[in-house]
Design brief:
Largest sheet: 4 strands, antiparallel
CATH architecture of the largest domain: Up-down Bundle
Strand content: 5-15%
Order of helices and strands: HHHHHHHEHHHHHHHHHHEEEEEH
Radius of gyration: 24 Å
Number of strands: 6
CATH topology of the largest domain: Na+/H+ antiporter like fold
Distance between the termini: 64 Å
Structural class: mainly alpha
Number of domains: 2
Strand order of the largest sheet: 3-6-4-5
Shape: globular
Helix content: 55-70%
């Protein structure tokens, strides 16, 4: 009987936590602090007030739970970016996500060693942990506001790219640091290249198989379709990990590759994964918060070291790295400054600190506490100012109002000849009235969606970059129309 009561207590606590997480969005509408961050601090305070909570989840259990949550977050993030948006901003995404991670790690390690007198090992691990960004936290600050244009795509894509890069770099560094036979920089570089290469290959191969499965293999019930992609995400992660690759990169790449796939119940699948990712973000922060002892942060000048690193990262390192990498990118100056200020830290840096704690490297607890202080500064000081910064810099934003009532038409098969395009910045259709478009008599525009609102496609209607256009046309016209509306040949 005691076991039944204990199980019931655990279920009650978990369900209450999930309920609070669901209603946390109402609080963040009035308080400009990301909901996940609130749960991080609340869990940390609770673990100090009730020490038994800190012993409920050992560090290895927390690492496993947060890793699973990160799979959901990255898979959904990849689907949100999709192939079309990725192609439009692949250069800054990969530049910031890969090169930016290495540059940030190097500069921050140098600053930690020479300015703050940290050992090379401590400085390197701290810098590696703090390199990844977490715009998922940032976008929760905006509530019903959404960043429009390439800056939003770059921040989303960068976070998805630099999370796997940071994780692979940290694991390679820890392996070299704790291995009895060493290996040095060469071993770190080799492990990193293998993880990235295998992860990307598994993600692409799995996406090809998954996209065909989604399109052509039917299931008995509508509710099973989201569960199929959920299971596939974890299969992709597990397969890549067993092959010594980055499972996190694999699920992110697969998410991007299937993001624009036309498949039955695709909208329901996307909504399901978006909801899971939001909940996973909060659960990850709460679980990590239980591992933090706020009373221990006052020792060994943890607060001072963490705050100095946070200032160096936010004011010097991030602007230098982002500014240099965004020089050749066609964006307004305001958007570039916004991206530089938008390098918020979240669950991944704390997870990387937990990897160091789990590996038992020298000074692991100090490293973990420093990372927590930097993340705390980032979500409070930077997170609360993001909306004001975006408005001051003229970054385009739009209101996203809830639309709880849905009107849909279900068809047994995919409509033949219906094609969807997004008007590109450099396309021939941008700024041109519909009547002046060279689409011929065998194609016609049936619907235009601008900023989430349906517009009537009359002849004098002028298309703008970002418009979503639904066109009825024969298959042989698809490539020409793709080039007309999106500015590049299909498949490029």
């Amino acid at each position: 009987m005691a076991e039944v009561i204990e199980f019931g207590r655990a279920v009650l606590v978990f369900a209450a936590g999930v309920t609070l997480a669901l209603y946390s969005s109402k609080l963040t509408e009035r308080v400009p602090i990301p909901a996940p961050a609130i749960f991080l601090f609340a869990a940390a305070v609770a673990s100090d007030l009730i020490p038994a909570l800190g012993r409920v989840m050992p560090i290895h259990v927390v690492v496993d739970a947060v890793s699973l949550a990160l799979v959901l977050i990255l898979f959904d993030g990849g689907m949100s970016v999709g192939r079309r948006r990725f192609r439009a901003a692949w250069a800054p995404i990969l530049g910031l996500g890969v090169a930016g991670t290495f540059l940030t790690t190097g500069l921050l390690a140098l600053a930690g060693h020479y300015l703050l007198d940290l050992s090379w090992l401590t400085a390197g691990i701290v810098a590696t942990a703090l390199a990844p960004t977490d715009p998922a936290v940032m976008f929760s600050v905006f509530g019903r506001k959404q960043v429009v244009g390439r800056s939003g795509t770059v921040l989303e894509g960068e976070s998805g790219a630099n999370d796997p890069v940071g994780i692979a770099l940290m694991l390679s560094l820890l392996q070299a640091a704790t291995s009895s036979h060493g290996g040095g920089a060469g071993a770190v570089a080799l492990n990193f290249v293998i993880e990235m290469g295998v992860g990307a290959a598994v993600g692409l191969a799995a996406a090809v198989l998954l996209s065909r499965t989604m399109r052509y293999i039917t299931l008995p019930s509508e509710g099973l379709y989201p569960l199929r992609t959920l299971a596939a995400a974890f299969v992709i992660y597990g397969a890549a990990t067993l092959l010594h690759g980055s499972g996190f990169l694999a699920v992110f790449v697969a998410g991007i590759a299937i993001g624009d796939v036309h498949a039955p119940y695709k909208v329901a699948i996307e909504r399901f994964h978006s909801s899971l990712a939001s909940l996973a973000e909060i659960i990850a922060f709460a679980a990590l918060g239980l591992t933090i002892s706020l009373t221990s942060l006052g020792t060994e000048r943890i607060w001072l070291t963490g705050l100095l690193l946070a200032l160096l990262l936010a004011v010097i390192v991030r602007p230098l790295v982002a500014g240099a990498l965004l020089v050749p990118v066609r964006m307004s100056r305001g958007e570039k400054v916004f991206i530089a200020w938008g390098g918020l830290k979240g669950a991944v840096p704390i997870l990387l600190g937990a990897f160091a704690l789990q590996a038992g490297v020298d000074g692991a607890q100090t490293i973990y506490n420093i990372v927590f202080v930097v993340v705390a500064f980032s979500v409070i000081a930077q997170g609360t100012t993001m909306f004001a910064v975006a408005r001051r810099l003229g970054v385009p934003m739009r209101d996203v109002e809830p639309e709880p009532w849905d009107i849909a038409v279900r068809l047994q098969g995919e409509p033949r000849g219906l094609r969807r395009f997004f008007v590109g910045d450099d396309s021939r259709a941008a700024g041109v009235a519909i009547k002046d478009l060279p689409i011929g008599e065998q194609a016609w525009i049936s619907m235009i969606i601008r900023h989430g609102h349906i517009a009537r496609p009359h002849g004098d209607y002028v298309l703008q970059p970002g418009d979503e256009v639904l066109v009825l046309a024969e298959a042989e016209r698809a490539a020409v129309l793709h080039h007309l509306f999106e500015g590049r040949p299909a498949g490029s």
